[in-house]
Amino acid sequence: MNLDDIRKGIDEIDGKLLDLLSDRAELVHQVGLVKKRDGLQIYAPEREESLLRRLIERNKGRLPEKSIRAIYREIMSAALALEDDLKIAYLGPEASWTHQAAIKKFGHSVEYTPLHNFAEVFDQVARRRADYGVVPIENSTEGAVSHTLDLFVDSPLQICAQILLRIENCLAASIPREQIKTLYSHPQALAQCRGWILKNFPEAHLIEVSSTTRAAQLATEKAEEGAAAICSPLGAEMHGLAVLEESIQDRATNTTRFLVIGEKTCPVTGKDRTSLLFAIHDRPGSLVRALQAFDQFHINMSKIESRPSKRKDWEYIFYVDLSGHCDDPEVRNGIEELEKHCSMVKLLGSYPDVGE
Ligand SMILES: O=C(O)C(=O)C[C@]1(C(=O)O)C=C[C@@H](O)C=C1
């Protein structure tokens, strides 16, 4: 077959695909009407996950899993926009890693609102000015994002999904490498690249700013003073900077976990994770007894963080992640047992335990 013939074949398939996508959009429109009538959530992470898992299992063609996920991410993004004008609030500015995580989850067809801080994201979702919010919760190199943990204590919002995003910081500037005197970046990105900075720019003046995108902007504005940024390749592109070195973080597998917060949590998918907060009585053995509740019901605890309660000095709140869904009998029993040993237990939600 020559090129023209092959392309004719592709045109024919594209025509059929578009007709099928239009038929799908018709059904999606009906789903939207039913959901609005019954007061159901438009975004259904459990349905998205089961649909993706089924398609990946069925796939016998040449397309890798990554491509299937990307294609369907955009098909379902178009569906979300058709069903409702879905608004996603995220910790901005544009092109930040949180923005990129939000796009990874919700695609390009929905509306995004960049906000200035974590509290604003929680607040806008709680006031229903945005349908969902996206915030970082932890980084595999630098650990917990304590602002996010603290905001859950008083928030009525629930976690409905998680997003894992590989973070690859770059050195970006509009000046040659030898002229760099100052490095701008977000404190987390500076910490992730600490070893690289010490080796490559031991004399540089390090300046912490509110985001890596802001760092890219400053590298453009202050180029004559020898400024460069440690930022995302997208942030560099947005501000017309050249990428002088890619992937400069100290660990190759530097990943950040983000959470999607909304009014409701997610139903069972069969491979879930549950997050909760608890506070213990100030007595010997309280923490051990609280944690034994998980052991007793064979629940795997994948994470624990402690944070000051902010109500009383030297009183702590523990943030825990468990394998399983809060509607699974063993997790439910484990939480009931935990409650016996705690002064407060707050369930933050259960959501699909998806990887990168
Ligand atoms: O099945 C639904 O609940 C839909 O809204 C449809 C659909 C889809 O395109 O398949 C779209 C968005 C949801 O998050 C999940 C699935």
Automatic annotation (TrEMBL):
The gene is pheA. Residues 87-263 form the Prephenate dehydratase domain. Pathway: Amino-acid biosynthesis; L-phenylalanine biosynthesis; phenylpyruvate from prephenate: step 1/1; Metabolic intermediate biosynthesis; prephenate biosynthesis; prephenate from chorismate: step 1/1. Residues 1-87 form the Chorismate mutase domain. PROSITE patterns: ACT (PS51671), CHORISMATE_MUT_2 (PS51168), PREPHENATE_DEHYDR_2 (PS00858), PREPHENATE_DEHYDR_3 (PS51171). Gene3D superfamilies: 3.30.70.260, Chorismate mutase, Periplasmic binding protein-like II. It catalyses: chorismate = prephenate; prephenate + H(+) = 3-phenylpyruvate + CO2 + H2O. SUPFAM superfamilies: ACT-like, Chorismate mutase II, Periplasmic binding protein-like II. The lineage of its organism: Bacteria, Pseudomonadati, Verrucomicrobiota, Verrucomicrobiia, Verrucomicrobiales. Keywords: Amino-acid biosynthesis, Aromatic amino acid biosynthesis, Cytoplasm, Isomerase, Lyase, Multifunctional enzyme, Phenylalanine biosynthesis. It is found in: Cytoplasm. Catalyzes the Claisen rearrangement of chorismate to prephenate and the decarboxylation/dehydration of prephenate to phenylpyruvate. NCBIfam families: CM_P2 (TIGR01807), PRK11898.1 (NF008865). Its EC number is 4.2.1.51, 5.4.99.5. InterPro entries: ACT-like_dom_sf, ACT_dom, Chor_mutase/pphenate_deHydtase, Chorismate_II_sf, CM_dom_sf, CM_II_prokaryot, G/b/e-P-prot_chorismate_mutase, Preph_deHydtase. Its main location: cytoplasm. GO terms for molecular function: prephenate dehydratase activity. Residues 275-352 form the ACT domain. This is Bifunctional chorismate mutase/prephenate dehydratase.
